[in-house]
Specification:
By secondary structure, the chain is of the alpha+beta class. The chain is 39% helix and 18% strand. Helix 6 crosses helix 7.
Length: 274
């Protein structure tokens, strides 16, 4: 079953750079109690855990975390770029219990280095919600050219792709993005690990592909599972529809793997079942 990896967002900061930097660096959100100490002193942890036995996950990329605000302002002043979108606040959240705080922070730092190699960035990993998530505070002004970061749809999708690429590299699960447009609400629901008709379809199709040796057999098995595949030659796009749903889904929206020609190639490789 396909599960979520990370949810990503980016939005502009127009008012106060210090406000968002201070929020990201808030120690109440970034301090993580040492689990070993909690287990060791479980009966008495309120009295025995020392504040020094905690770790803080804040890293400055192209800046010092202690003086990030001053360094960012200095760059903006140098290029006379102190108005408009002064910074960007980005967000990356992980599925509960899928990563350690150390790994969440490591991925966040690597993501910042790849995405904003010429910008100053604060990366802070928060634990206050019970789910590990990274906050990125990005100086909108390039350190070397003075140009402002162009936060358009392309930049967001690049951010999301880099996040998924890093997660794959660490063996974490990601949602394989379909060719074509997936409805926004479904994409983010899948990112949060929630069941959707899209991933239920994928699961049923994966199961059918494991036991079929021909595409015609695959369609029959899917019918028994409650799905109708319509891929006649008069249709521009093959579709799949649950018998309990009047609205069909174009198969390309599920991903390349789920196109008829790729399904046919996949099941053809299965050994004949006696």
């Amino acid at each position: 079953m396909v599960m979520t990896m990370a949810t990503t967002k980016i939005w502009a900061i127009k008012d106060s750079l210090s406000r968002v930097v201070n929020y990201a660096k808030n120690p109440e959100k970034t301090i993580f109690s040492d689990l070993k100490q909690v287990l060791k002193y479980a009966e008495n942890y309120e009295k025995t855990i020392d504040k020094n036995e905690k770790s803080m996950y804040v890293t400055g990329v192209n800046c010092n975390r202690e003086t990030a605000y001053e360094e960012m302002i200095a760059v903006q002043n140098r290029f006379d770029k102190c108005t408009g979108n002064i910074a960007y606040h980005a967000y990356q959240s992980f599925k509960t219990r899928e990563v350690s705080p150390e790994l969440a922070h490591k991925i966040g730092v690597e993501l910042a280095e790849k995405m904003w190699s010429e910008h100053q960035v604060i990366v802070a990993t928060h634990f206050n919600t019970g789910t590990y998530h990274n906050h990125f505070v990005v100086n909108s002004v390039n350190m070397f050219t003075g140009k402002k970061f162009n936060c358009n749809k392309g930049a967001y999708y690049h951010f999301r792709e880099l996040s998924d690429e890093l997660c794959r590299g660490y063996g974490l699960t990601v949602i394989e993005k379909p060719r074509g447009k997936t409805p926004r609400n479904i994409y983010f629901a899948e990112k949060r690990g929630e069941p959707t008709k899209y991933n239920l379809m994928r699961q049923a199709m994966d199961e059918a592909m494991e036991i079929c040796v021909s595409y015609s057999q695959f369609k029959k098995v899917m019918y028994k599972k409650g799905y109708i595949i319509n891929d006649d030659n008069n249709r521009k796009y093959p579709t799949i529809r649950s018998m309990n749903d009047k609205k069909a889904v174009r198969m390309y929206q599920l991903g390349e793997k789920y196109l008829p020609k790729n399904i046919a190639e996949r099941v053809f490789q299965n050994p004949c079942i006696k």
